[in-house]
Amino acid sequence: MAPLKAGDKFPEGVKFDWAPITDEDASACGLIQEYDASKEWKGKKVVLVSVPGAFTPGCQAHHLPPYIEKFDELKKKGVDIVAVIASNDAWVMCAWGKVNKIHGDGILLMSDTKTFFSKEHAWQAGMGDRNGRWAMVIEKDGTISYAENEKDPRGVTVSGADAVLSKL
């Protein structure tokens, strides 16, 4: 299937695995839950970001931190949720969130192992089954207004927080 592009509608049936962050202890994560993105994101503006892997050098140093640091700016532009997905399991994503001091429900770190969204509707990294490095903005009516993939999965340009902010 071709990747989604600006103007397309976010598909039905998209689900991720998610272990909610309930405390700061990175050595213990809660139970994995199914997160029905198609349902939960109705009526919300969402920035969906895909990374090749939690704790990998580019993702940890250059991709996730700016989204955390600029979350308030994103909110001022109408963003309700920043969701970061990777092919890691939900417990790894939860631990990654804890290490990066993510709290609340504005930034969600989820596992793309439920319906394989990146494989089915977006881009992969060309490194086995890893997700690609990309970002998309889903408007409140479900229309995708921005969808860009990094040509080089080691770089963070079109999928970074600054690039997304400039398109909101």
Automatic annotation (TrEMBL):
Endpoints of the signal sequence: none
UniProt cross-references to PANTHER family, sorted A to Z: PEROXIREDOXIN, PEROXIREDOXIN-5, MITOCHONDRIAL
Active-site residues (renumbered): 59 (cysteine sulfenic acid (-soh) intermediate)
Protein name (Swiss-Prot/TrEMBL): Thioredoxin peroxidase
Record carries keyword RNA-binding: no
InterPro entries: PRX5-like, Redoxin, Thioredoxin-like_sf, Thioredoxin_domain
Keyword Oxidoreductase set for record: yes
Function: Thiol-specific peroxidase that catalyzes the reduction of hydrogen peroxide and organic hydroperoxides to water and alcohols, respectively. Plays a role in cell protection against oxidative stress by detoxifying peroxides.
GO biological process: cell redox homeostasis; cellular response to oxidative stress; hydrogen peroxide catabolic process
Phylogenetic lineage: Eukaryota, Fungi, Dikarya, Ascomycota, Pezizomycotina
Residue span(s) of domain Thioredoxin: 4-168
Transmembrane segments: none
Family to which the UniProt record says this protein belongs: Belongs to the peroxiredoxin family. Prx5 subfamily.
Record GO terms (molecular function): thioredoxin peroxidase activity
Keyword annotations from UniProtKB, A to Z: Antioxidant, Oxidoreductase, Peroxidase, Redox-active center
Cross-referenced PROSITE patterns: THIOREDOXIN_2 (PS51352)
Organism for this UniProt entry: Cryomyces minteri
Domain of life (superkingdom): Eukaryota
Gene Ontology CC annotations of this record: mitochondrion; peroxisome
